[in-house]
Amino acid sequence: MGVEFLNIIETDEAIDIIQEKFDECYTAESEIIDIAESANRITFKKIESEIDFPPFNRSLKDGFAIKAEDSYGVSEENPKKLKIIDFLEAGSFTEKTVEPGTCVEISTGAPIPNGADAVVMVEFSYKSHENTDLEDDEVEILTSVTPSQDIGQKGSDVKKGQVILNENIILNPPKIGVIAAQGIDKVEVYRKPKVGIISTGNELLTNQEELRPGKIYDVNSEMIKAGVNSCGAEGECLGIVRDNYDDLKKKITESLKECDILLCSGGTSAGAGDNIRHILDELGEVYIHGIAVQPGKPTILGIVDGKIVIGLPGNPVSAIVIFNVFVAPAIKKLAGYKAEEEHETIKGKLARRIHSPIGRMQYQLVRVEGDTVYPIFKDSGAIFSLASAAGYTKVSKQTEIVEEGEEVEVTLFN
Amino acid sequence: MGVEFLNIIETDEAIDIIQEKFDECYTAESEIIDIAESANRITFKKIESEIDFPPFNRSLKDGFAIKAEDSYGVSEENPKKLKIIDFLEAGSFTEKTVEPGTCVEISTGAPIPNGADAVVMVEFSYKSHENTDLEDDEVEILTSVTPSQDIGQKGSDVKKGQVILNENIILNPPKIGVIAAQGIDKVEVYRKPKVGIISTGNELLTNQEELRPGKIYDVNSEMIKAGVNSCGAEGECLGIVRDNYDDLKKKITESLKECDILLCSGGTSAGAGDNIRHILDELGEVYIHGIAVQPGKPTILGIVDGKIVIGLPGNPVSAIVIFNVFVAPAIKKLAGYKAEEEHETIKGKLARRIHSPIGRMQYQLVRVEGDTVYPIFKDSGAIFSLASAAGYTKVSKQTEIVEEGEEVEVTLFN
Prior knowledge:
Two copies of one chain form a homodimer. By secondary structure, chain A is of the alpha/beta class.
């Protein structure tokens, strides 16, 4: 029961089709979460300020809240005595009104009392004695101040209704601080798309099993789950399925009930025992089978019941590269990331020549030391190259050789 | 009850003292976690391979496992018939031995049977008829192969005992894949230091309270917690405490029982109502009080019962900058990060002149558009500058003016 690949398509076309199908199948959704859990989540809507900030005129200095006109002409040589009618720390307030000839002693952050319109810093004042009996207390001010001096006006930092954060903003610590300043305890963020992950293959063991002849441990489930999670989605490993048409069809059907997107790996080629293509043809429609890329030609995109099923190559190196290049951007967009927040890249000089097949885009794993880029050449199926690989560099399909010493761009694994 | 600052120290000295005190007080600890939860955790020890990989000689191609010498002299013009004695898919194995004149049909990934020492790709073979009766089945091979051809030798990717991951490696998806390939289900990682966070101030409200005259919402608790978590530690908000010596002393004493490190904000200056310094003097010893930096001069480091207590400025902009510059590196080191994995920086041209005080290192908040860097000038106490701030740029204490158009380095908030 063989099947042909569909037209082998170019990498750019594959990226476009995958994005197009994601856009057709999904609309981003939001959820309301506690601000305490909001780190690294992404705003779904613009957030407008619910308050003026500061919420009142407040003192920017420790000193004395006065009527500015009481200070006109005042200097060290010509000080002026004012009666202290109250003392305000941050967090307290007074009903008293500052009249000409009076003032309120005030701490940084405390609200400016009625009647006062400027603050004289404590450095420009002289109190002859410490007196806890406010009735008798007075201060000499030694400088003139202008109206509004050292007052943070209500709403000067932000006004009620002003946009404080746009949509699609990743909530880092300072931005969480901005939300906290509003007294908000909930925030609307992108819901994490739920991504199911299945590994297929008769040779695969779970980490709960003993190694047996002919078997190897499943790599892709946990690796792809971590990749999915790093895209702002929620990966769930749904298990290992044998290369059996009926078992796999049943597993795919059941899994699609539990997730938004399904990622399978293995069984995506065009040989006997490669069942994914057949099953997706039967259950839905296949839009991609075969990309002109190395590694990872046997990549599949199908849609079943309005949900996307991706078939990744079984080889772990191929699977993670194909995931990063083709699938991650679409998941990240659905999870609220802006396009510019793609994988980080660095540049460096190639330490050894790369030979690349004509006609296929190659993603070559590389190790990076300083600004030197070492290609990692391994058998197909080698896994431990991933231990030292910082990321991969692209070699275009027209290029057969990239020479030692050439500058290359490396997309880093995140 | 005033107190003087200690000697105001330089930023570099402060960073050194903080690191030194962390090194004195703490030894990094590890914990064993499930690989499924290991994303972004940091390896505590070298991890050695527990198996040879591949765990057996395996076929790198679909084809026929033969004795190489059976193919010598063979070509399309001079094909050779071999009897097929078994068929092996990936995951299966056979007890049969390949003798001269025989072969085993084999899929990629399947174990090479005894007696065979090379694989002929299916593309270089011809089977005259499909026959399910293996007794009668035979294949014509059309090419010669050398011993070991298209065989992935046992242990060729990694040998048992070989180091696959070093210590202090952040577990990203490919590295998780490498661990998974071992069949390991647990991994030893750095334990997350537990960091308690307290906000102090009579003016502070929780987000469960209504805004009242003279009050503002607590920003620092959730913001600093998010900052702590981004350092690979586990932040816990322990609440708001009033500016009251006894309450704050009790809270600090109790909190230290629940965490490794305690971060307080507010009440760190040298005025009346600034209690943190007094309390730390009473409970333990103060090593830093006052750094020649703007913003954030009133920063404290004390040690109580062998645990570090940091007093951050109450102003949120100061608090997050001081946290990032002085505290985050020490927490990250304790959490297993290597020093080179510090905050990300970018370079850009300054859009407007910055005036900076002589004698204090200034950390100027900036907004970034493309490669243009806009300083954000706001009142002290302004918070919403954090909404647009990408990070900060340093202005050294000898510099009074950084001119428009100069190239500056920006440390990004993460």
